[in-house]
Amino acid sequence: MKIITIGREFGSGGRELGKKLAAKLGYAYYDSEIVSEIAKKTSLSEEYVSRVLEKRPKPVYPVGYGTTFYMTFNPHFNLSNSIYTEQSNIISDMAKRMPCVIVGRCADYILKNEDILRVFVYSDTETKLERCKKYAPENENLSDKELLSKISSVDKERGKYYRFFTGQKWGEKENYDICINTSLIPIDKAVDFLAAIALGEQNR
Amino acid sequence: MKIITIGREFGSGGRELGKKLAAKLGYAYYDSEIVSEIAKKTSLSEEYVSRVLEKRPKPVYPVGYGTTFYMTFNPHFNLSNSIYTEQSNIISDMAKRMPCVIVGRCADYILKNEDILRVFVYSDTETKLERCKKYAPENENLSDKELLSKISSVDKERGKYYRFFTGQKWGEKENYDICINTSLIPIDKAVDFLAAIALGEQNR
Predict the structure, then answer these.
(1) CA dist B60 to B50, B160, B163, B172, Å?
(2) CA-closest candidate to residue B162, choices B34, B54, B12
(3) pLDDT at B66
(4) Does residue A79 register a pLDDT over 70?
(5) How far apart are CA A70 and CA A120, in angstroms?
(6) Between chain B's N and C termini, which has fewer beta carbons within 10 Å?
(7) CA distance to partner chain A, nearest, from residue B77 (Å)
């Protein structure tokens, strides 16, 4: 298949896997690029869009419960919702334009009717902590406790965002074709396997 | 690694995957053989042991809730519990004796302190139905509705059994190193990948 979506827990190596997979297959790679594109189209500042996309509207109502009132009267939601719609359109456009790997952004849900391979990447807390330390920005000096709190909070927001816009539970295996725990499975081996699947399916 | 455990939803092809993987690696393969071994050791009839193992004691109490009373006074539980203990010992013995693939029987939990690769195999309902029809015994003529009910009931029992003896949720990705949805991922490709992981890790 020509579209691969990657959901990922923070610090599990999902971005690395996505980039390597795109490089191996010669596919386009998207994650924050999507946000830039949205920003250009809507003339909102990239920073603001990025903040809204990460944070998602608050307070959270379960999908299908109270959303009518919320959607009508909460200007913050209306803005976020229009950004989500814009983002969905852009993802759909891009996926039609050329084969691609898309990390995050509910792409698995947005493209659910296309011929896609849906991957979820996760790992145990120790692995995430180790990875976050290894790849931390130079000016970021967080303690283990602060890092753990950051990991947990980023994943919580991703879960809420995904739930809010898809009505599905983030990271639940039924929504994916393969779930890979990078605490044991080496990323490079996973890349080889996923590339074989994508190419094999394409030749059907 | 020399031990691979496979949890699987009924009709998802977990047994096929396990057998092919064992053959490819030259590992021993176990599933119902374990039951036979238990039966020999405890002098209970194989059929009875099989029935108890599949059905697990009823009614079900959450682990850590009411189990003291239950364990003390319910003869059915005491028998099942002693069979589970016996089974755990046998699985541990076998895993020490030679490299193996073990399907089901809470092996991932029983061997959690060993160097193992924990696989879970699942698929969507349509795939399971198709598979069950393809491999149905000649004398089994179930309607789609009856098959679906069988699939759901077998998985429910497996989930209860696993929960009862491990305290963990059956099929939850955090308990596994890789979860494979056989609706899209071809079993033979998964076998190649898992063999590469097992052999790669062994050479570390």
Answers:
(1) 19, 8, 10, 20
(2) B54
(3) 34
(4) no
(5) 31
(6) C
(7) 32
